[in-house]
Amino acid sequence: MPSVEIRPGIFWIGLNDRTTDLFEGIWPVADGGVTYNSYVIRDQKNVIIDLTKGFKSDEYFERLDAIVPLSEIDYIVINHMEPDHTGAIRALTRIPRKCTLLATEKAREMLAAFYGITENVQSVADGEVLDLGARKLQFVHAPFVHWPETMVTYDITDRILFSCDAFGGYGALPGTIFDDQCSDLVYYEREALRYYVNIVAKFSSPTLAAIDKLAGVPIDVIAPSHGLVWRRDPGRIMELYSRWASLAKGGGEIGVTLLYGSMYGNTEKMMNAVAQGMSRAGVPVEIFDAARTHSSYILPSLWTYRGVMVGAPTYEGTLFPPVAQAIEMAALKRIVNKKTAIFGSYGWSKGGIAAFQKLVEPLKWQVTDMLEFRGSPTADMLKKGEELGERFAAAVKTP
Questions:
Q1: Contact 183, 174 (CB under 8 A)
Q2: Angstrom distance (rounded) from CA 299 to CA 301
Q3: Strands (DSSP E) along 292-338, which ranges?
Q4: DSSP secondary-structure letter at 377?
C-alpha cells in the first residue's frame, strides 16, 4: 500500500501486516491483520512521528525516501517505546543521520535499555511545543496509555492528534487509511473494542485521564499507531474509548457472556437449556466455548456485558481448566463487579463450584445462583437449567 497524504505535507507511511499470527505474542490477528502506522511531516524541519515494527524495512524506507530523504529528517518523535512502534529504529542506527530523537524522559531511558541508543536523544516536557516552520507540534504526556513513558503528539496548525496506542484498533487497512472511505466501519469498531480490552483495558483510569486532558483541544483528525485514521468523525473513536474505559468499574450493558466448557457433552446440554432460558427472557447472550475460543475474543464480551453465566464441569476436584484460565485472564484485565452464576456437572467428586467461588471473589463478582448435577442432566434438570437462565436474566436486568 503506497503512502497517503493526510494533509498537505503530512503523510501516512505505515505498513500493513497480514502475516503475523499473534500481536504482542498473545492476541490473534491472523484473520484480519494489523497496521503499524508511521507518519512524516515535510516542513522547514522534517519529522517522523512513530516508526514501525522491525520488518519490511526496505519498503518502509523506500516510502519515506520518496517523500523526504532520510538524510533530511531532523526529528523522530517516539511517542511510545514498544517494539511494534520502534523496531525500525534498529535499521536507522546503521544509517548515518543527523536527526534528533524526541521522547519523554522515561522513554529516553528505555531507548538505552532496548536499543543501546544514548546519543541525539532529547527529552520533551509535557506541553512543550516544537516549531517546524509552517506548523507547530505539541507533546502531551499520557503515562500508562499504556506504558509509563507514553505521550501523544498534537499538530497545533492542522489539528491532528497523533495518538499512539490510544484510539487504535486491530485490522490491516483495506486499501484506504480513512474512516470515511472504509466500507465496513462496523468491523473496525469491533476490532477496536477487541484491541482496547486486550491491550489498554487494565489502564482505563489513565485513559480517561488522557481523554480529559485533551478535552477542549480542537481535533480534526485522529491518527493512531494501529488501525484507521479518523478524519470524518474523530469524536466517534474518542467517544467509544471513553465509553469502554468507563466500564472499568464494572457493571456494563444489559447482556450476558455465557462462558462454558464441556468434557463429554453433559455440561453443554445444560448450557443450551440455560441459554434458552436467558434468551426467552429477552437478554442478549454471547456464547463462548472456553476450550476452543481464544480469550482475546471472550474478553470484549466480559468487559461489555453486565452478566457472566459460567458452565463448567468439575475436573479433578476443581474448575474445568479452560474456563478457569479464561477467568484468570479476566482477572489480569481487571474485569470486576459483574453479576454471575454457575452450573456444571460432576462425576466422582464435586469441587468445581467451590473453586469458581474462590476464583471470582477477588473480582467482586456477585454470585447469584448455582446449579450442579451428577453425570448427564435429566429432563427435569434441564428444566431447572432453563429456570436458572430466566432468573439470571432477571437479575441482570436489575441495576
A1: yes
A2: 5
A3: 305-311, 314-315, 318-319
A4: P
User: Would you say how long the chain is, in residues?
Assistant: 399
Q: What does each C-alpha distance from 344 to 34, 354, 357, 359, 372 come to in angstroms? A: 38, 12, 13, 16, 5
Count of Cβ atoms closer than 10 Å to residue 25 Cβ:
7
Give CA–CA dist 39/335, Å, rounded.
Answer: 34
pLDDT, tens digit, 9 for 90 and up, residues 307-323? 999 999 999 999 999 99
Distances in whole angstroms, Cα of residue 172 to Cα of each of 22, 166, 175 = 14, 17, 9
The DSSP bridge partners found for residue 50 are none
| Euclidean distance between CA atoms 399 and 391, whole angstroms | 14
The span from the CA of 34 to the CA of 22, in Å, is 10
Comparing CA positions, the residue from 170, 160, 297, 144 lying closest to residue 226 is 170
Contact 346, 357 (CB under 8 A): no
pLDDT tens for 283-310 read 999 999 999 999 999 999 999 999 999 9
Domains of the chain (ranges plus CATH)?
4-248 (3.60.15.10), 252-397 (3.40.50.360)
Sheet holding 39-41, edge to edge: 4-7, 10-12, 39-41, 47-49, 75-77, 100-103, 121-123
Contact criterion met (CB below 8 Å) for 392 and 366: no
Q: How confident is the model at residue 96 (pLDDT cuts 50, 70, 90)?
A: low
**Spatial separation of the C-alpha atoms in residues 266 and 369, rounded to whole Å:** 19
φ, ψ at 355 (rounded to 5°): -65, -40
pTM (two decimals): 0.94
Dist. CA 216–CA 222, nearest whole Å:
15
pLDDT digits (tens, 9 = 90+) for 200-241: 999 999 999 999 999 999 999 999 999 999 999 999 999 999
Before 146, cis peptide (omega within 30)?
A: yes
- Cα(327)–Cα(360) distance, rounded to whole angstroms? 8
Residues with Cβ within 8 Å of 226's Cβ and at least 6 positions away in sequence, in order, are 34, 35, 36, 37, 84, 165, 168, 169, 170, 195
pLDDT tens profile 100-158: 999 999 999 999 999 999 989 999 999 999 999 999 999 999 999 999 999 999 999 99
Phi-psi region of 376 (alpha: psi -120 to 50; beta: other; left: phi over 0): beta
Q: What is the mean pLDDT of the chain?
A: 95
